[in-house]
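hiii so um. not sure if this is the right channel but i have a protein structure encoded as tokens and i wanna go backwards to a sequence. like what aa goes where. can anyone help
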């Protein structure tokens, strides 16, 4: 009795959970990206979820990253990150590259394959699998760089099914991120130490260039238990009248 329950977008709430109990502990500015059936994302700034006027803030999956793409995204647009870096998008480009590139690949031996098959093949050095990850995660890295120029987060968190690829995925994202993010300098050791200390008040921390690998982390499965009735999550939901799409 007396416990306040609020509902929000899954990626937004996941981002808040990561700040509270996950890989984002001690950070008040972060961007979580989930790579699954789509590219989801959640933004936390100064310890609070950013939802925007209509609840669509942070939807980096609908960044237009390929102006030459003619196929349509689920939203009706074209060339969106969602079409390239989601699991269906990655598999689409894997099949496309298998048709265009005649090099040997273990993926040719499978009647059907999934994201795990592709990342396993990439870990073994499969040329087509690596080409696919490089292309798709390259676009994701460019999307993250665009987002970084807007919100300047302390940390990026990568979650969803594709995050199980671990360091392989992070390395590819890292490689392309540092070639697309220009404005911030590399943090000094003192700034890095300050960034890792828990903070009680909002402050601004530059995300470094090049981005240390620790700043792009694989998000673990969401599995949190909430039993503290006094917990305040700083989740703000507007009135129904505010959502007039």
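sure thing!! here u go:
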């Amino acid at each position: 009795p007396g416990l306040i329950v609020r509902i929000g977008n899954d990626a937004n709430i996941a981002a808040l959970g990561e700040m509270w109990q996950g890989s984002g502990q001690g950070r008040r500015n972060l961007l979580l990206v989930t790579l699954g059936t789509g590219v989801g994302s959640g933004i936390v700034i100064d310890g609070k979820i950013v939802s925007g006027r209509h609840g669509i803030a942070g939807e980096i999956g609908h960044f237009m990253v390929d102006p030459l793409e003619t196929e349509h995204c689920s939203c009706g647009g074209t060339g969106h990150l969602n079409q390239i870096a989601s699991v269906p998008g990655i598999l689409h480009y894997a099949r496309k590259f298998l048709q265009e590139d005649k090099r040997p690949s273990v993926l040719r031996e499978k009647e059907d394959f999934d994201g795990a098959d592709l990342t396993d093949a990439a870990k073994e050095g499969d040329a087509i699998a690596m080409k696919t990850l490089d292309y798709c995660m390259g676009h994701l890295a460019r999307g993250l760089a665009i987002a970084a120029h807007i919100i300047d987060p302390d940390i990026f968190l990568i979650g969803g099914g594709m995050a199980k690829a671990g360091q392989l995925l992070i390395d590819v994202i890292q490689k392309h991120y540092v070639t697309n993010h220009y404005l911030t300098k590399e943090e000094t050791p003192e700034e890095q130490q300050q960034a890792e200390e828990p903070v009680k008040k909002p402050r601004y921390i530059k995300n470094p260039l090049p981005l240390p690998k620790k700043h792009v982390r694989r998000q673990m499965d969401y599995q949190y238990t909430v039993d503290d009735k006094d917990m305040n999550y700083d989740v703000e939901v507007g009135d129904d009248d505010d959502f007039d799409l």
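oh and The CA atoms of residues 14 and 222 lie 7 Å apart.
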